[in-house]
Each structure stands twice: as C-alpha cells, then as structure tokens.
C-alpha cells in the first residue's frame, strides 16, 4: 500500500514539474544511445577480440619459423658452396703421401674455410671429410677422423641417404677451451660430396652455434618474464630455448603436454607450470619435424583481453554519466527561466494550490497578466539590473573611493561587503572568436559565463559578484572570510576557474583566457587586484591558447635586467650560412627557451623577440643577397609581436623565414658543385691511406655533411663511401699483383684497420678474395 502511494506521489510530482519532464526525456535518449553503442561493442567488437589476440600470437610463431627457414637456408647454401667448390674437390683427390708437396693448395682451402667462419656470427667450425684419404681438413689443418675433436656426427653421415642432413642440437667439446672441459651447443649441417649424384665420397661438416635459434626465441618472449619458447624434436627433446637451462630436457616431463600434439602439426593446449596457468601454441618446422612451442601465461592473455574489456566498460559507464550530466545541465538551462517565472508567479499570486502543475500555473498567470496590463507595466518598470551592473563594474575596477557611498549603495543593491579578503579574476573571450560572433551571440555567451561562475562558486559556498568592464572582460569579485589557510583557498579558486574554462570550451566551444589578481584585505584595494588580473592577461601570448594566469606567477620581475643571448644569435647566423637547417631550429628553440626563462617581464620578452626578427635581415646582409630575391614581395619581415597568437606561432614564422634563406643559399651553391666534387675526389685519392670520414671531409671543405653527401652522389652516381672503397680496392689490387706483402699488411696500407673488413670489401667489388686474386695473377705471369 505504501509503495503504491509513493509511486502515485512520485508520478504526480513528475507530471507537475516541467524540469523532471525535461530531465527524464534527455536521460532516456542518453541511455538509449549508450545501449546502442554498448551492444555494438559487445556483440561485434569484443566477440572477435580473443580470436585476434590468438592470431597475433600465432603470427609471431610463423614469423620466427620463417626467419629460421631463411637462416638454415643460408647455412645449407654455405655448406653446398664448399661441396661443389672446385678447389675443395681438387683437394679431395690428393693422395696422403703428396699432401706435404701440395701445401699451397691445402692453405688455399684452409683460407676458404676460415673466411666462412669469419663471415658469420653463428658458424663455429667447418670441415671437409673424404673417405678415400681418411682425413678431415678444417681451418686449423689436416687430422685423422679418429683423432678429430668432434667425430660424433659420423654415425649420421654413415647412414644418410639424401644430399643433406641436419643433426639435432648436441654438446660438442669446445676446441678453444684452454683447460677443463668446455662444451658448445651445436647444430650440425652435413652436405654430401659429390652433391650431384647418389655416390658418397665425403662430406662438408658445418657446426653452427645453437644461438642461431635461441636468439630468435628470446625475441618472441621479449618483455614477458614468464613466457617460454622451445624447439623440440619428434622424440620430445628440447633442442633450443629462450632459457638455456631447459636444453636437452624432455618436454613431456617439463610440461603437461597432451598425447595428440605429436600427431598434429599446429595446435595449442592449456596446462599448469610452476603453479601458473599457461597456454602453449605450437607449429611444425620443415626441418626434421621440429616443433616450435610458444608458451605464455593465461594471465597475460587474459590481461590483454580483460584490460580492453574493462576499459570499454569504463568508457561506457563514463559516457552514461557524462550524458546524464549533460541532460541535467540542459534541463537546468531550459528550466531556469521557467523557474524564475514560476517563483515570481508564486510571490505575486494569491492562489496557493500545490496541486497546480507548472504549465497550469504559467497559463493562469499569463491570463491574469493579460487581464491586468497595468500591473504588468508596474512590475517591468522597477528594473535595477543595469544600475547594479554599473556599480559593480566601477567598484571592482577601483573607480569608487568614498567608502560611505560604497557601503550605502551596496546595501541598496543587497551586496555584502563585510568580508576579510577580496580577490579579482578577469575572464576574456578569445578575440578571434569574438570577431565571428554577432552582438546577440556575444551577450548570450557573457551571460552564460556569469551564470556558470555564480553557480559553481555558489556550490562551493564562495561568495562572488560578476560585472563587465569597457573591454568586454567579465570581472569576478571573490569575497572571502578568514580561513585556516588562505593559500589553499586561492588554489581552490584557481583550480575551479580552470574547470570552468574547460567546461566552456567543451560544451560551448568558447575559448576563454583567465587572469587572476592577488588577495587584498581592503575594499579600497580590490582595484589593485583587478588591475593585476588584467595585466596577467597580457601574458597569454607566452602561455599558449586560453591559459589561466595568476599574477603571483609573474609578479616581482619588472625590475629585472633584460637578458638577450647574443652568442646564440651569432651561432644562428653561422648555421644559416652553412645551410644546416636542423641545427638552426635546435639553436632557435634553445634561444627562445632562454629568453623566456631569464626574462619574466613581458616588456623584456617583447623586446627580445622583436630583436630576433632582425636576424633575418642580418643573415641576408652577411650572405650578400638581395632581400627581394629571397622573399616574395608580399612577405612581411616587420610583423609586430602582438600580431602573433602565441609563442609557437612566432617560432613557426621565424623558422619558415630561416628555411627560405637556407634554400636560396643552397640553390646559389649548386652552380659550384662540379668543382667541389672534383676537389673531393682529389682529396680522397690523396688521403685514402688515412682514416677518412664524411664529417672530416665536410669540415675540410666547410660544408654541411648531409649536403655534401647528397651532392656527391647526385654528381658521381655513387655514394661517398662507395667511392672511397673503390679507390682503396684499386690501390690494393696493384699491391697484390706487384708485391709479396701479406694481405694484412696490404689492408693496413690502403686504410683498413681490420683484415677481415678488407677481405669482405674486396670480395664485394672484385668477386674474389685477395688470396684468390693474387693466385690468378701469378698464374697469368707464369
């Protein structure tokens, strides 16, 4: 019974109140919109989220397998190259008794094997084995198979039927160990000799470091400490892992692997590892049926999914609250004028029937007003709003001095002035926005600002009065009683003003700058706070768009001496002359930062920025250019500082002018590039033995390095470093042909500090190693 009465009373209240009708209508529309967005997110976007996460994890596995396939292909190709190499095959048929006589041929093959090891970070050793002679040759020399440091591969070789074979990871004693027993984890590639037919006379034995795989596995799990990655053979033995402790373990003993995984090439399964629920994805590699396992915590996968879900839910909840708040705001705005009318009607009406609805009450009062026009004119005639507004404007701006008159007029307008502290803030609508508004829109926005300020600070129980000055600024007077901490109260006022500023921008697209004066203890001094708030607004040029600026942050610096970084100006002019735009912008940014850091007075900053605009003309003068040739006729180089919206706009403007000067300077220099390139070539041919760098050459010719590099390639068709390398290789070819100096000595004579770097570069340009080139030359001489 009580519920029925409450429901009847509640629905009756809604039907009577226009505000509740407005609010319910807006809220229902908002809820329906959120439900539609939520349904789309739940049934379409989140439905496929888990599938996309698993697809992403499998993509990492496929990419890793593809990379392994490429690396193993390179190892096979390296082994095959030695299997079909004519020098290797010729060496195979040298009788053991004649090995001593054929040492030169043996050394050539040894050098080939050594180069193969040096050319890769993963190759541990490479050897050539021949059954007829019963010996094995690697870079260290000849040895019998039985006494070779690694012969465990022979069993696989003895039973191999194809042209190539790859052994599982195994421990091999390191031949570089000086004491004790040190082992390397090795993957062995065996290539049959001869490669092209079914006979088997020997093999190339290539031992590769297991890190060729483990480095890839570490990349999969990078950033996830709990994640694991394994390469497992078809017996379940772990051949490689991102954590070396797991190598050679049985995966079935380490993980709860299902039986069916061995029969399937691709799949996944869940298990528990060290008390953590995990999920394992696996796929099969095309070598020896090895499988790649990628294991990650279910919590990690769950977090990836749930994190997105939770964010989605929070966004929807926030959206619902925001829409509800907006509904409430719009309801208040729509109902506020109606509420004022109803309150006035209740004050003037003799009828006190609480059962009347808002609509009925308004309709009745309108009828009564129409019937009694004389009464209406009397109510409208008593208007004190404009007089009250003028009084507040003069009071806040400090134009009234007679305290007796001030208090008398304040009492008349019901304005309390018996407070302990006073503080003024000035709100200014962006001038660029005002230019696009008509008078009605401007006045509407100002009324909106005043209503928002009064309502927000009223909710905080902070007394305020608002007025308007001659420059269309909204002046807000804060009246404060003694509080425990006045600084905390000032901080609250500043934060609230910033929140109001954000709300005006968000809901009305109205950018507003706010200046805040300091606290004053007397009514007669509130004009000082007002002046400070207006002065603070001048600093918005330095603070970006629509800032909130407190006079406290800028006060006390007007007597400071002017600071201007003249040395940085000289650096700017030098860099512009050199054509280095990137460094020019860096110095320009540093220069502006220092000006803003050391000059707190706005007048000093304005003076420094005006002086910076003169750098443009000074650069043109020093480069001996005609200013009309560099800039277009409509380019204005003397723009007043106050014409810029903010400091960023000034920075972009002056940077653009510097770029045009540099581009014009570079265009003028292009006519001299032919002789420049010739000079650079001569310099390289003279200094190729020394350490040459692009920076040193650019410095020698007094050019920017990037410009010099680009110009050299445009004119020669080759890069700077390619030309240096070709000169050095040509010089070394003569030394190889005409002297008996060692390869290492020749490398040093043509500017290489590293023998192997010289060999790689020589082979790149000549398609032969230095040793091969020298051998062919001697054959021609004979």
Q: Can you tell me about this structure?
A:
This protein is α+β, with helices and mostly antiparallel strands and about 775 residues long. The longest helix has about 50 residues. The N and C termini lie far apart (about 125 Å).
Which key phrases capture this entry?
782 residues, alpha+beta, five-stranded antiparallel β-sheet, 13% strand
Could you say which structural class the secondary elements and strand pairing correspond to? alpha+beta
Task: Give the strand content.
Answer: 5-15%
The percent range for helix content is 55-70%
Q: Over the alpha carbons, how many angstroms does the gyration radius reach?
A: 43 Å
Q: Kindly, what is the distance between the CA atoms of the first and last residues, rounded to a whole number of angstroms? A: 124 Å
User: Helical region count?
Assistant: 31
User: What summary fits the major beta sheet?
Assistant: 7 strands, antiparallel
Low-confidence stretches: 10-15, 375-381
Mean pLDDT: 79
What sort of overall outline do the alpha carbons produce when their principal axes are compared?
Answer: elongated
The number of distinct β-strands equals: 17
As an assembly, this protein is single chain
